[in-house]
Amino acid sequence: MIELAFYYHDIQLISSVFMQLTGLFVNGIIRTVYYICPHLRLVIMFNLILFGPPGSGKGTQSEKLIARYGFKHLSTGDILRNEIRNGTRLGQEAKSLMDQGQLVPDAVVIGMIRSALEQNAGVNGFLFDGFPRTNAQAEALDELLAEKNTAISVVLALQVSKTELIKRLLNRGLTSGRTDDVNESVIGSRIEEYERKTAAVADHYKKLHKVVHIPGEGTVDEIFDHLTSEINKRQK
Ligand code: AP5
């Protein structure tokens, strides 16, 4: 009986040493592969920018995309509205700019994204909605992702006419309670900010061959089908 107990103990010891050596071996291989080809890490995450003017459907489509793919949704507009609801200093400072349809300073939103990326290490990918909105934000995002050995996979840019944008936002303003939706002059300022500062972000990513234009008018499901077909092509 005692012999059997020793025998059992030996087997346990040998198998535990074996498992640890196997773990170290596999870990070593992965580390060596990453060392030789660091770009291989890029395939692990899929990072998407859903791009487009105010009212183009970024929020609507983001909800469906995160449900389908499990991306971590990072919407700077949602984060800022949350700060306003919580009455934080950042929220108070952002509110007056948002109510006028102006952009919040780059340093503020870049800081928000930096901490969101840190808090969400280990996700399978990020869906950026409403960020980046200036070239400075795009450059900062590229750097933050590079620090994590990852990058933007694709920028899906929703195309919607100005008349349709205004119609959608005024319509949402009837019920949403969003102070930036209630009058046409603030909506006009938001669209102007987009044209003056944000549209150029697409050029930044065009140089990297990452922009795909998606027709943003039609039913929500039709647009979603276009988006998923572009994502699926790149995830194969
Ligand atoms: P943010 O919250 O990002 O708002 P936005 O870009 O103005 O976009 P919206 O949320 O209004 O529109 P959306 O494209 O998401 O469309 P949605 O799906 O909601 O930003 C708000 C403010 O925060 C900015 O103005 C700025 O001040 C500040 N801010 C945020 N990020 C910043 C940053 N990075 N830097 C600096 N400042 C920043 O749809 C709109 C409506 O249309 C809905 O009612 C929806 O039901 C409807 N709809 C959607 N799809 C369709 C369809 N296919 N057909 C018909 N109706 C549709």
List keywords for this structure.
236 residues; Rossmann fold; 9 helices; 5 strands; alpha/beta; binds BIS(adenosine)-5'-pentaphosphate
What's the gist of this structure?
The protein is built from 9 helices and 5 strands. With 236 residues, the chain is an alpha/beta fold.
Layout of secondary structure:
Blueprint: H1 2-36, E1 48-51, H2 58-69, E2 72-75, H3 76-85, H4 89-99, H5 106-119, E3 126-129, H6 135-147, E4 154-159, H7 162-173, H8 184-206, E5 211-215, H9 220-235
Parallel strand pairs: 1-3, 1-4, 2-3, 4-5
If you had to describe this structure to a student in words, what would you say it looks like?
- The longest helix has 35 residues, at 2-36.
- With 236 residues, the protein is of the alpha/beta class.
- Helices cover 62% and strands 10% of the residues.
- A five-stranded parallel beta sheet has the order 2-3-1-4-5, sandwiched between helices.
- The chain folds into two domains: 1-36; 44-235, Rossmann fold (3-Layer(aba) Sandwich).
Total helices: the number is: 9
Bound small molecules, deduplicated: BIS(adenosine)-5'-pentaphosphate
CATH architecture of the largest domain: 3-Layer(aba) Sandwich
User: What is the total domain count?
Assistant: 2
Low-pLDDT parts are none
CATH class of the largest domain: Alpha Beta
Structural class: alpha/beta
Return Rg in Å: 23 Å
Fraction of residues in β-strands = 5-15%
Label the overall shape: globular
